[in-house]
Amino acid sequence: MSFSRGLALALGALLACDGTAAEPGPGPGDVVLGTWGGTDAGLIADDTSAHLHIGCTLGNVTGPITLDSSGRFDVPALYNITAYPVDRGIVHPARVVGVITGRDLYLTVSLTDTAVVLGPVRLRLGTEPGMVMCPICRRAPAGPPRAPAAWRER
């Protein structure tokens, strides 16, 4: 092996080993969990429900958000597009559709009784929702960003 090829391989191996292990993504049947934040958007999910914001709108999913084999989901929700500055209390049936890629979640909300579509937005696991334009639903992070334990065990 030539010196330059050996040096290139060694340098490539050194750059690949930066001391951080990539956390595996979700698998089929996994449930979306945790705080996911982005610019004027956020999702807070547990194993029984989820609450989300895009701008000054908000919605709720009843039940877990379960992923398919491609890391995608499509769940029903109730969504309020007039939540701020004066909440008129009008909720619409909606679909929340998304996909997780690594630590990023891309989602879109589509109201099923109107032509309103919000998103897509990009959210990051463990990131506080950056509700800059709208002061609703701010929450302090619970700790350092981490993928759910089930994802790390793969």
Structure explained in plain terms:
An eight-stranded antiparallel β-barrel has the order 1-2-3-4-5-6-7-8. The protein has helices spanning 3-16, 149-152; strands spanning 34-38, 41-45, 49-54, 57-62, 72-80, 92-101, 104-111, 117-125. The protein has one domain (22-134). By secondary structure, it is mostly beta strands. The longest helix has 14 residues, at 3-16.
Count of individual beta strands: 8
| Number of self-contained structural domains | 1
| Largest sheet descriptor | 8 strands, antiparallel, barrel
Helix proportion of residues, in percent?
10-25%
Overall pLDDT level: 79
Overall radius of gyration: 19 Å
Topology order in helix (H) and strand (E) letters = HEEEEEEEEH
What is the spatial order of strands in the main beta sheet? 1-2-3-4-5-6-7-8
Termini separation comes to: 36 Å
Uncertain spans: 3-21, 138-154
Give the arrangement of secondary structure elements:
Elements: H1 3-16, E1 34-38, E2 41-45, E3 49-54, E4 57-62, E5 72-80, E6 92-101, E7 104-111, E8 117-125, H2 149-152
Antiparallel strand pairs: 1-2, 1-8, 2-3, 3-4, 4-5, 5-6, 6-7, 7-8
Task: Characterize this entry briefly.
The protein has two helices and eight strands. It is mainly β.
What keyword list fits this structure?
eight-stranded antiparallel beta barrel, mainly beta, 154 residues, 12% helix, disordered N terminus, disordered C terminus
